[in-house]
Each structure stands twice: as C-alpha cells, then as structure tokens.
Specification:
Shape of chain C: elongated
Strand order of the largest sheet of chain C: 2-1-3-10-4
CATH topology of the largest domain in chain B: Rossmann fold
Oligomer: heteropentamer
Number of strands of chain B: 20
Largest sheet of chain B: 6 strands, mixed
CATH architecture of the largest domain in chain B: 3-Layer(aba) Sandwich
Strand content of chain B: 35-45%
Structural class of chain B: alpha+beta
Order of helices and strands of chain C: EHEHEHEEEHEHEHEEHH
Strand order of the largest sheet of chain B: 7-8-9-3-10-11
Number of domains of chain B: 2
Helix content of chain B: 10-25%
Number of helices of chain B: 8
Bound molecules: adenosine-5'-triphosphate, magnesium ion
Largest interface: B-D, 81 and 81 residues
Number of strands of chain C: 10
Number of helices of chain C: 8
Distance between the termini of chain C: 33 Å
Distance between the termini of chain B: 10 Å
Order of helices and strands of chain B: EEEHEEEEHHHEHEHEEHEEEEEEEEHE
CATH superfamily of the largest domain in chain B: P-loop containing nucleotide triphosphate hydrolases
Chains: A mainly alpha (228), B alpha+beta (367), C alpha/beta (231)
C-alpha cells in the first residue's frame, strides 16, 4: 500500500474528528427534535417534519453556497458570530460541523423519531408509576429502547459525514489541516490523475468504515437491549 | 379524613367514564364490574395517566387533580403503584433490574417493605437473572406485582393482578396483599372478576357498569343487594353477616362467632374475643331441613330460620335462592324440586344447615 | 517561515503542487493549497475565504474580484494558457482532426460544460466554428469541469473527447493514447490569470509566490504540464 | 386412530420441555399445571412455532413433524387455531378486520362456523368498527377467541382464553367452546388454571410440572389421584363418578342419574336415557350425617356410605377430606371438630348428603 | 419569479422521474435485504449490514468515478450490459437509476430493517395461525406495521435523490433531457454566478419538496396504521 502523505494523514485525522463531533452533535440536537416530533400533537408537527428533511433536497454545493452566505462575516449567523467570538465562522472547523450537522440531520431525526413513535407511551407510563420523572424515564427507558434507532442514526450520520463533500468543500474551502477532509483529498487526487493515491485513500476509508460499522453492528447484536 | 375522593367525567371515543368515588384511606377497595365497564379507565384516571377536562382527585390531604383550579400533579409525583392489567415489564432490563427500577428510585427512608421480603414471598429468586421476554405469563405477573410493591407506593392500584396464576401461587401472594393492607396500611384499589379474591381481600366494594360507578360501600352493604346477580358467579352469591368473636377452639382450628344470639364455627381467626368480624356465607353452602333439627351431622352450623322470600329461578334453571331470616338475611340455594318436595312457603320455620367451611372474610374495623 | 494560502483552479492543481514544492524548498515558506472550480473559489473569496493568491482557470473571475475589490489592482497576470486536445486513450484509434468525430461507431464524445468550464466554452467555439455542434449533439456528454470530461474518456465511457492538453501530458497519465491538438486559432485563448487577493495584500510571501510563478523554474513546469505561456 | 400424538424434547435457556402426549382426536384436553411448568411452550411446539431437535407430532393421519425424517409442516399449513395467552390483536387492523383475517383466508368449503354465529355468541357486534389498541382487556380476549374460531381450524389451541372475563361473559362463551367440542368435533387443547373450566369443558386432562407431562388421562382417572392436591384449589377437590342417565324431570330442570344402584339429581342434561355421564362431586359439597338418614331436607342426594379413610389435614388447618365408599369413592370435606363430635372411624356407616347443585360435567363417550 | 428555461424545465421533469423511479426501485430492492437482515441469524448478517452502509462513505464524485469504471463498455457491469442490450449503460437514465439506488440504499434498508426488527415475530406467528403463508403475512401484517419505516425510507430516498448530484453528474454526463437533472442545473447557475436563476430553481425545488413531504406526513398521520 502506498504510504499516506502528510497532507492525507492530516485530512484523515480531520475527517475522523469531524465525523465524531458531528455524530455527537447530531445525536444531541436530533434527540429533542425527534422526541418532540414523536410525541407532540401540535399542528406544526408535519411542517417541522418536512423542514427537517429539506436540507437533503438541495445539491450539496448549492446548500453549501447558501450556508456560505449565511456564515460569511456579513451573513446572518456569521456576523453575530464574528462579533462574539472575534473569529470568522466560515472556513473554520466549526463551520464544517454546523454544515455537516444540518445536512445529516434528517438521517438522525427520522430513525430516532420512528423509534420513539414505536416505543409509544406504555413504557413511559409504567416508569412514571415507579417514581421516574419524565427525564428519568426518557433516559432509563425510552432511550435504551430506542437503541436500534440510535444505531441507525449514528451509522447514517457517521457515514454521510465521512462521504460528504460538496457542502464541506464550499463552506470549508478545503484548507489543509483545517478544513480539508478526506473526501476532498480523494477528489483532489482524482482531479490530478493521481489515481493510485485516490484508490489507496478510498480503499482505506472503505476498510476503516467497514471495520467501524462491523464493530457497531456486532456490539449491537451482542447487547441484550432489543425490543421485540 | 384519610380518604381517596375522586370525580371524573371523561369522554373517550365510544366510551364515557363518569365516576364518583369516595373511598376509605386504607383497606382494599375492590372495583367490580363487567368487562368494558371502565374499571381500567378509572384506575388510569386515579394514577393521572388519563386526564379529564372535569376531574378531581384528593388523596389524604393532598389534592392531586382539580381541573377547575388547574391543579394536576403529574403521575410520577403521586407515589402511586400500579400493577397494570398486562404485565408491562421493561423488555430491555433483566428481571432483577425491572424489580430494582422502582426500588432504587424510592428513598431508603420511604421504603416500607424489604427487598428480600418481596423476593421471597413472590418466589422471584429463580427468575432474577432472566430476561423478561421469555418468562411465562404467570412469571411475568409475579415480577410486575413485585416491581410495583418494591417501589413502596402510598396508594396501590392493582388491575386483575392474580389473573393467570395457579391456585398455589394465588394462595402465596394473597397474604402479601393482606400484609400491605393490614400491617402497612397501604390503601389498595383492586380490580378483579374473581369474587373469592374480593372476599379474601376487599374491605370496600365499588360496582361499575357502563362507565358509571353504580354502587359503592362495604361488602355487606353491597352484597345484600339483589341486583348483583348479573355480576356474580352463581357460585358466589350469599349473605354477609356481622358477627363477633366469641371463642377460639384451637384444637380444631376453629373460632366460634356469634350474631343475633346464634353461633357459627369458622376457621380460626387471629382476632381477640369480642372483636367484630364479618363473614360471608355462600348460598350454595346453605341447605334447608324441615321438621326437627338434624342431629349428628358433620355440619356444625344449624340455625332455626324463617323463610322470607323464595327467589326467582337462577340462570341454571333448576335451583332457586331462598332468602331466610336468622335475625338477619341468609341465602340458601336449593333445587326447585326441593322447594316442591319440602313445600316451602314464606313464613315457614325451617332449619338452615351452614357448612362450616363457608368462605369467611375478616374485616378489621374501619372508621 | 510563513504560510501562503493559495486557491487554485482544479485543472492546475497538479502543476502548482510541483511549483509549490520548489518554492517551499527555496524560501522555507509553507504553501497551503486549496483547489476547487474557479466559480466556487470566487464564491468563497467573496464570502471571506482566507486565500491570499488565486490561480484561476480564466481571466473573468480575477477581473471581477478586482472590480469588487476582493483582489489587488494591477496584480493580475496570465500565468498559463490552456491547450485543448481531442483525445482517446486507445492508441489504435488515430485522431487526425475534427472529422474523427464523425466516424462510425462513436457513441459518446466528452467535453466540459461550456457554461461552467472555460475548456467547455473553447470546445463549443471549435465545434460550432466547424459546424459540428448541432450534428454531434446527441453524442455529447458533458463533464462539469474538464477533469470529469477527462475521466469520461480515460475510463472508456466516451470514445473520445475534448480534454486539456495538460491532462494528457500529466506525468501521471499512463495512457498517452492518440490525440489531436486543437489549433489555437479555433477558439479564444484559454488564458488563466493569477491575482493577489486582498487578504495577501500586505503579506510578502504571497507576493513572493506570485513572483516565483513567473520564474523560469515555474515556467518550465507549466510548459511541461502542457500549458502555453502568455507571450 | 384419530389422535394427536406428540413427543418433544426441547432445551431452552433455563428450561427444558420433555413432553409426551397422546390425546384423543376430539374433545377438550385440559393442560393443567403450575405457572412456568411449560404449558404455553407445549402449545407452541404443537403449533410448530417452537421447533425442537427431537420432536414428533402426528395429528390424525398426518405427520406434522418428525425431525428424524426431517419432516416439518410449517405452522400456517397445519390449520391450527391458537388463542394466545395474550390477545395479540393486529394493531393496524380494526376489530372487524382482525376477525376477518383468518375467516377470509379459509376457503368457504372448509368453514364450519358462520360469521354471524361467532359475532353473536361473543357479542362482538358493538366492537366491530373499533380500533384494537383501546379495547379493554376482556374485549380484546373476546376478539382473539372469535378470530381464532372464525378461521375454522381443525385443531384449536387455547391458552387461558377466559382469563380476565367476568362471570357473565364466561357463561356466554363456554357454550361456544362446548359447541365446537360436541357438535363440530373440533379437538381443543385448553390451558387453564381454573378447575371449573376444566370441569365444564375437558374430556381429558394432561398434568404438567417442571416441563414434563407428569400424567394424562380422563378426568376421573386424574381426579382420583391423591397427589393432585397441590395443583388444585381446595374448593375444587372431589370425586368423579361414572353414572348413567336414568330419567329426566323437566318440570324441575333436573335429570336423575344412577351409579352402583344409587341415584343423584343433577341439572337437566340433553342426553338420552341410558347414556353414560360422568359427574364431579366436590368434597366441599358433601356433608355427613350419622345415625338415621335425614328426612325433609333440601338436599336431594343422600346415600348410605362407608367411611374408608380419614384424610390428613388440608392446608386450611381446620377441615379434612373423608374418603367414603358409595360403591365407588366419594370425598366429603368436614371440619376436624365434626370428625371428633361424630367420632368418625374407618368402616363406620354414615349418610352422605350431596347438594344437588354440585358441579357436574358431561362427558360424551370417547373411543 | 424568474421563468424557467426550457432546459431547466426538462431537468425538473427528469429529476421527478428519476426520484420516482429510484424510490420505487429502492423500496423493492431494499425490502428483501432489510427483511433478511432483520430476521436472519446468519454470521454474515453484520457483514452485509456494514456493506450496505458503505456507498455512503465515499464522496459522491469518487463513488461516481468508480461506478463510471464499472459501467463503462469494458466494465464489470457495462460490458455484459452492452452485450445484451446493444447500448452503453453509462450516460443513460438507467445508469442514473442504478447509481442513485446504490447511493441511497442505506437510507432505505436501515429504517426498514429497524422497523422489521421492532415488529418482531409475534404478529407473524399470529398470522401463521390464521392460515397466512409467510409471504401473505409479510404483505398483510409486517409491511403495514412497518409503514413508519417505509415512510422514513421513502422520504430519505426521495429527498436524497433530488439533491444527489456528484454521482449522477459523473455517471450521467449531464445530457439535457436525458441525464441532466435539476441539481446539475442549479449547480450550473451557481457556478456561472447566475444567482438569480439559482435562487429561483432552489426555491422552487425546496417549495415542491416541502409540499410533497408535507403531504406524505399529513397522510401518514391520518392513516390509522400506527404501531404502539
Ligand atoms: N383511550 C380510550 N379511547 C377510546 N376508548 C377507550 C379508551 N380507553 C378505554 N376505552 C374503552 O372504554 C371501555 C372501558 O374500558 P376499560 O379498559 O376501562 O374496561 P374494563 O372495565 O377495565 O374492562 P376489562 O375488565 O375487560 O379490562 C372499553 O369499551 C374500551 O374499549
Ligand atoms: N423461548 C424461551 N427461551 C427461554 N425460556 C423460555 C422460553 N419459553 C419459555 N421459557 C421458560 O420456560 C418456562 C415455561 O414457560 P411456559 O410459558 O411454557 O409456562 P406456562 O406453563 O405457560 O406458565 P404460565 O401458566 O405462567 O403461563 C418458563 O420458566 C419460561 O420462562
Ligand atoms: Mg381492564
Ligand atoms: Mg403460559
């Protein structure tokens, strides 16, 4: 196998960081949204459901373009961000996280919501009769019962973030060591006809993802937590 | 003072619950009524799991719900234990974790029953390390009862908890409920279709029909009603007598009780002489002798009685219930043929044979 | 040692990597390279990207940036001139001019998107000038950029295509195949302009890199990669 | 010939089922045994839902499973009906669609019971358009029974089907099961903890304990065993008598039956004179008179009897079962005090009073 | 609003066709895979689970690049295809469908699998006791109970196909009327700084998707089919 260049190693490391942070943020952000969608009877439910799925519909570069506008120093989010942090938001790691989170949100919200809906209110009622507050019941009953949904959400969110390219390229500017992730590195190698390196990186990415997914699924199977 | 009072009016699709109950703050209240009459819905309302636009619940001094004043204590703050009609074990937890769920969430100071005590009484030790989803129906029920009790609730709601258990298990579990009732003074609202559970456990009875609480009161009040027939198993109709402990005969395992100057032998009671005791005499356990009182019979309890009323035919088409007067009402079930042979007429004096083994029920004094 | 952040049009990335390596060796400055299509780079620069130097694939975008004062006036210059080639990786398939396009059995002809890629625009000019644009419409497949057009051909999906000469001559290209270099006069020159961006205005190493781009070493590299120089 | 034969040996975590049954191809076989003894597992094996490495099932002439010969008929081809221990209604279908599910999947020629008949008997009309998930416990059970029966299965497995139903409902549903048994000759395997259901329905009894089928046979065979005590409610111990119909007394709704030259009155039976009938006489319904036989009593059935054996104390500590000989064994439950007062000794001649309303059970002749 | 050009209208129509066909194919292909994954006890289960998620991991253009190689007249799929159909696979609508299907497969398989696992064997057992064959039971019980999973799968698959860009661009060759989908059209407008047209198209796409999603969710809510 071809040795990875410094540039590629940096990209790999950045990608792993981005995927990990994004999945974390996605699960944290996605959980309350999914929970609300699963349990509310509000008329706005369907509207929010549709809105959550919307980022998916735009081509990534186009979504990236709009995000770029929003996060630029003159943008709706970028301007206040600059004011408070004294740093530009676009072309930063944070921007990548925000963009990836937004783009992968439906992959997290939808499976979680489906899980929460399937669980229904019965286990929560039961927990409430055993002194469990709603939050306690969520943590001790609903979330472990939704494990299958969390696995799906995490896998889709993780894989999608690894492979994401258009949005990240647009918002991050592919700055090595800062915003140049593996997917961009592979793309660059293809563009410069450096196929050997592209194959090696793709193969490595696939292998790594495969092993990660295999581990997740194996652990999932071993866990005694399974509704049915 | 210590009472559980509740009024609900809740309109569900296809069903309306209009309940008004006022129960003593201790003892077991049996909710009795045909399938679909709203028993479960009533329990859910009490627990706060179902909320009605016009509802009020007061338990002891605390108002849990008063929609007019916009008071609503959420279910988990009511310290209610609920044994649901279906076991509802948490599928992601082992049997032990299920049992510990409420136990660990109860501050040690508020626990009134010990882990080992419950595990032993319900014979849960062999199940502790099992997964829940492959337990047998009866095993699941025992775990559900244990889990509710281990959370040391201040009010316990039980929806047909002994269904699906074999006779032996029932005999083992009933003392646990009696202990909650008598020693720990935990009020229990108990839904059942089994009259013998009512007789062994209940101090108060609420009758439901078509979503309404049609009657409520002490066992003897309710049981003297004639229209109960339809709710009850024919084998469980009978009179409730107010008696007093007169003497114990430990050599035979019997206690003599008295009422209106008559005596009855019942299985030995752990109550002091002079204590009040209500007993239930099933009409099927009472037979009638005309002429001279029978001697030399294995039946210990024989009274002179007056025929008050000859009932209408029961559903089995061959027997009738005879209402007798032995200072208080007593019911005897005999065949129509016997009515004819004995030529029974109201006013006639007869002898009532009561088999000593009639089911009895001790009712500790309730304010 | 300082850092120079340069944004480069994708098609020139391979060449600039070689130039940057030499620049780093000579100056101990570190060159950070970002590449994307010129259109994306433009959008990024106008929205706060931290690039100091732009090597575009055309002259239009650098001029726009100067007009909108995202770039420093009078720093733009043409650093390379692209050459168009009609190419096939199949060496047996001899290409001897535009009529190769009309040969039987040709299913797909690749080119870059005329709207988004300068090489596409040039190809369009060549084809319409020869009156071939409409006749071969049905066979044309478009890559979003010249890189994709090259991949269509290199992978055998298109029988032949208009690619950048720089791609065919790229040392990494293992299929010299057979090609016809499109004469320069058949299309407007594919001038690629470099410009100093506002972010690099007062950054000496950025200016140094732009200067280095005009030094003989760089010029040799540019030519080796199949680009012409702006003489 | 028409039999249901099965052998299983299946090893589950924490549990091993070793069953060997050979049942008549008609009538109701009651599976009886403590909670967790493997009753449900046995039913699942019969249905083909649980597969054991060494299993064999033959129903009538068809081998459904023979692992040695690698024969295994998949569950849906066995034409088995199964009323599960929990109702298991399909949550995405209305009550009516649930009921129609098996009905429409049965070719009209193979249907032996009509839609209206089942709907009426189970009183399902008011529920038809309801969603299933909000039905009460009892309502769900009725739908589950109806759904299974409407599929016209050739073998019906019922796992505690009447649990959670009120007495009135039970009385209404039992005739449906009797009809399946007597008129349609559908073999039924019936799990229950309720002895009165056994008495009213079962023709054969299989006793299970700890995963093993410890005994099986006709009711009277099993009921004469002494070690049954532990499985049974004390109130349901008694003797089973083999009798013949002697005469009907329709004016009183009675039938006179004879055995060993003695007579008994039971509720009127729809069987012709001369037909065999087995009846079950609960020991609690039999009392003893010493000396002269009682006259003028409402108890119709009085026999001379010999005391055979005075049983050991029962679990309630105050009564004992006396085994009498009336040509065949008869059990009488009396208090220990009565034993002392009457000075009963084995060999003594006494009179047994049997209340006519003792539960009876008709057993059509089985090959 | 700016009037849509003929080119854009063509792209829009093509996109709708592609999304519809792809969602259809995805559901048909995804169902047996998800069903098998949910019910098998095979050791290969986790491997297949991981493999299904893999296409996501690669950047779309890179995945497209590999697909292009596979579908080329010399490629593993392209060569036999050419032989049987006498047409090249790449740059055809079929190629777009294959590529989109492959790329969106995890979004369909995962929610379906989760649904099937949650349903468990109880309803199927019950159906088998009512004369239902396994296929009958699947159609009449499992699939309606998995409706929530199907909705999630269809929405994610549909939205992702609308927004898909890199793979489609690569495999399709952006031939107007044949393989040039809306996402490419929008991209072109953005690249050429024709922002007004890009905004208009994006807005239209968003609005259309929003309405579609809203309808799906509203119907879903109205349907009486809901586990819990
Ligand atoms: N949330 C609800 N929405 C609609 N109908 C309901 C709801 N809850 C209960 N019902 C209906 O109300 C009636 C009473 O139900 P409930 O469960 O209280 O009966 P029950 O007395 O407990 O009967 P059982 O003895 O059979 O359990 C039933 O007909 C039931 O279908
Ligand atoms: N698939 C299984 N895996 C492991 N244990 C099982 C399985 N099925 C049943 N068991 C265990 O086997 C024993 C017998 O269960 P079964 O359900 O057959 O009992 P049962 O006689 O029906 O009891 P009940 O009257 O309480 O319903 C129980 O201890 C149960 O936990
Ligand atoms: Mg109920
Ligand atoms: Mg069972």
């Amino acid at each position: 196998m071809i040795a990875l260049s410094h540039d590629d190693l940096q990209a790999l490391w950045l990608t792993l960081q981005l995927a990990a942070v994004t999945v974390g943020v996605l699960l944290i952000v996605g959980t309350p949204i999914a929970w609300w969608l699963a349990r509310t009877r509000s008329r706005f439910r369907t509207v929010i459901e549709a809105v959550v799925a919307l980022p998916l519909v735009l081509p990534p570069t186009v979504l990236g373009f709009y995000l770029l506008i929003t996060m630029s120093p003159q943008g709706m989010i970028g301007a206040p961000w600059l004011q408070f942090t004294d740093a530009t938001l676009s072309f930063s790691f944070t921007a990548l996280v925000i963009a990836s989170t937004l783009y992968s949100l439906p992959f997290v919200v939808q499976p979680l919501q489906a899980s929460f809906e399937t669980i229904g209110s019965v286990p929560l009622e039961t927990a409430s009769m055993l002194h469990a507050s709603p939050i306690d019941a969520f943590l001790s009953v609903a979330s472990p019962l939704a494990l299958r949904g969390y696995i799906t959400a995490a896998v889709l969110g993780f894989a999608h973030t690894l492979g994401e390219f258009g949005v990240v390229l647009m918002v991050g500017g592919s700055i090595p060591g800062k915003t140049k992730v593996l997917s961009i590195a592979i793309y660059d190698h293809v563009e410069t006809l450096d196929y050997a390196q592209a194959h090696a990186l793709s193969g490595g990415l696939l292998l790594f993802s495969f092993i990660t997914l295999l581990m997740v699924y194996t652990i999932n199977r071993r866990l005694p937590i399974r509704v049915a | 003072m210590n009472r559980l009072e509740a009024q609900f009016d809740i309109d569900l699709p296809h069903f309306r619950l209009q309940a008004d109950i006022n129960l003593p703050g201790q003892g077991v209240t049996a909710i009795f009524g045909p399938s679909g009459s709203g028993k479960t819905t009533l329990l859910r309302c009490l627990a706060g799991l179902e909320r009605s636009a016009t509802g009020r619940v007061q338990f002891e001094d605390v108002v849990w719900q008063d929609e007019q004043q916009e008071i609503f204590t959420p279910p988990h703050q009511r310290s209610v234990g609920y044994v649901f009609q279906d076991p509802r074990l948490f599928p992601h937890l082992s049997v032990e974790s299920n049992l510990r769920y409420g136990f660990t969430r109860t501050p040690a100071a508020k626990r009134y029953i010990g882990w080992n005590q419950v595990i032993d009484l319900l014979d849960l030790q062999p199940l502790l390390h099992r997964r829940t989803h492959r337990l047998s129906g009866g095993e699941q029920r025992r775990v559900a009862i244990g889990r509710a009790v281990l959370a040391s609730p201040r009010l316990l709601l039980m929806d047909e908890p002994l269904v699906g258990l074999d006779a032996q298990r029932k005999r083992e579990i009933i003392p646990l409920i009696q202990q909650l009732r008598d020693e720990l003074h935990i009020p229990i609202v108990y839904v059942t279709h089994a009259i013998n559970e009512v007789l062994q456990l209940a101090t108060t009875l609420v009758l439901m029909e078509g979503g309404k609480t049609v009657a409520s009161g002490t066992l003897s009040e309710i049981f003297s009603r004639l229209d109960l027939d339809q709710y009850l198993d024919q084998d469980t109709i009978g009179a409730v007598l107010e008696t007093q402990i007169e003497a114990h005969e430990p050599e035979f395992g019997l206690t003599r009780i008295g009422f209106n100057g008559r005596h009855l032998f019942v299985p030995q009671q752990r109550l002091p002489v002079g204590h009040a005791l209500r007993v239930h005499v099933l009409s099927r356990d009472v037979s009638i002798v005309v002429g001279s009182p029978p001697r030399q019979t294995s039946v210990l309890n024989v009274f002179e009685a007056k025929v008050v009323e000859i009932g209408t035919m029961s559903h089995d088409r061959h027997s009738v219930d005879i209402k007798l007067d032995v200072g208080c009402p007593l019911l005897a079930r005999i065949t129509r043929k016997s009515v004819a042979v004995l030529n029974l007429t109201p006013g006639q004096t007869v002898y009532a044979n009561v088999k000593a083994v009639a089911l009895s029920h001790d009712l500790p004094g309730i304010p | 040692a300082a850092e120079v952040t340069i944004a480069v049009a994708s098609n020139f990335r391979a060449a600039v990597e070689v130039i940057a390596d030499e620049f780093e060796a000579r100056t101990t400055h570190h060159v950070v390279i970002s590449s994307a299509s010129t259109g994306k780079l433009y959008a990024q620069i106008t929205h706060g990207a931290p690039f100091e130097v732009l090597l575009a694939a055309d002259t239009k975008h650098p001029q726009l940036l100067i007009d909108e004062s995202f770039a420093v006036k009078n720093t733009a210059f043409t650093y390379a001139v692209g050459r168009l080639a009609l190419w096939t990786p199949n060496p047996d398939h001899v290409i001897d001019g535009l009529h190769a396009l009309r040969r039987d059995g040709i299913r797909h002809i690749a080119m870059a998107n005329p709207k988004t890629a300068p090489y596409g625009q040039a190809t369009y000019e060549v084809l319409s000038g020869a009156g071939l644009w409409l006749p071969i419409q049905a066979q044309i497949v478009r890559g979003e950029n010249i890189g994709q057009a090259f991949q269509f051909v290199a992978s055998g999906n298109a029988d032949l295509g208009f690619v950048a000469l720089s791609q065919v001559l790229n040392p990494r290209n293992r299929h010299p195949g057979s090609r016809w270099d499109v004469p320069r006069h058949l299309h407007a020159p594919l001038q690629q302009a470099a410009v100093l961006l506002r972010k690099g205005q007062s950054h000496e190493p950025a200016k140094a890199f732009l200067r280095f781009l005009r030094e003989p070493f760089s010029q040799k590299v540019i030519q080796r990669f199949g680009y012409g120089l702006n003489n």
